[in-house]
Amino acid sequence: MPETSAKRVLLAAPRGYCAGVDRAVIAVEKALELHGAPIYVRKEIVHNKYVVETLSERGAIFVNETDEVPEGARVVFSAHGVSPAVRDSAEQRNLLTIDATCPLVTKVHKEAVRFARDEQTILLIGHDGHEEVEGTAGEAPEHTIVVNSPEEADLVEVPDPDNVVWLSQTTLSVDETMETVRRLRTRFPNLQDPPSDDICYATQNRQVAVKKLSPECELVIIVGSANSSNSVRLVEVALQAGADASYRIDRASEMDESWLEGVTTVGVSSGASVPEILVRDLLERLAGLGYADVDEVKTATEDLMFSLPREIRADLKAADQAMKA
């Protein structure tokens, strides 16, 4: 670690909301504005406690499955995507659906459908039980095998070793995913790559920024929820990149002041589903403890934006026309 006596914060950039999260949260907000409460949301719209609590206060009702939604009601599918079985269930209950699936997740779904149509075995690198993995695997369950780790890559068995392709959850550690792919290719030399990288640009950019600042930090604090895969990965990335310690917190109040003992440089970043207000709260608390000097470590500029779900766009257009009538 470089020697310095002044307490400081290295603030990662990019951090926080990605385009897919922003789109999904706005979709729920617009649905509430246009149609009033309640608006049902299947699963957490994004993996962040603060966001879910804030939307709940405004009238969003979060459910685990569509059968918890009253027939004919309006339901939003989360940014993580859903399987065809979930869409069928919603249709059977005559639900008015708003699909807030991140377009980058939709891309992976389409890849799964295409590879399954070609009778290929899909090795889906990701975490069993994560909503995104459930949705992607649900596109072609009979053709998909989930690989949870590099270690599982050494054990997985496939029907035809020469007809295998890999896909991945969009929020994984880039390094760990590539290690899993390396091990899979050792066992299956003809393993086919997806047509483009599945790990999303925001996940990669946040990991790169944390990698850059971590060697200079005794401590790296990541703001994000426990069920946020990309937030959890950032803690791992910080430790692997050279930080002495790294912790994940939901809010500034969760920071343990004992973490700061002997620390001159604190790195700060946040997962892709974290609103900036939570980072600002942490910086304010750190400033009160003597870490008022904040330097931003910028490794990329993000300007990608996604259009709102088509259902919301249609409703906004209808509302606009009604006002003009």
Q: What does this 3D model show about the protein?
A:
The structure is a single chain. The strands form 3 sheets. Strands 10-9-11-1-12 form a 5-stranded parallel beta sheet, sandwiched between helices. A 4-stranded parallel beta sheet has the order 3-2-4-5. A 3-stranded parallel beta sheet has the order 7-6-8, with helices on both faces. It has helices spanning 19-35, 49-58, 84-92, 103-117, 131-137, 150-153, 174-187, 201-213, 229-241, 276-288, 310-324, and strands at residues 8-13, 39-42, 60-63, 74-77, 96-99, 121-125, 144-147, 164-168, 219-223, 245-249, 265-270, 293-298. With 325 residues, it is of the alpha/beta class. It is built from 11 helices and 12 strands. Helix 5 (131-137) links the parallel strand 6 (121-125) and strand 7 (144-147).
Total of DSSP H or I helical runs spanning 4+ residues: 11
Topology order in helix (H) and strand (E) letters = EHEHEEHEHEHEHEHHEHEEHEH
Count of β-strands: 12
Oligomer: single chain
> Stretches where pLDDT falls below 50 for ≥5 residues?
none
- What strand line-up does the widest sheet have? 10-9-11-1-12
Q: What structural class do helix, strand and pairing data support?
A: alpha/beta
Through-space gap between termini: 66 Å
Mean pLDDT: 96
- The coarse overall form would be flat
Helix content: 40-55%
User: Roughly how many Å is the radius of gyration?
Assistant: 21 Å
Strand content range: 15-25%
Major sheet details = 5 strands, parallel
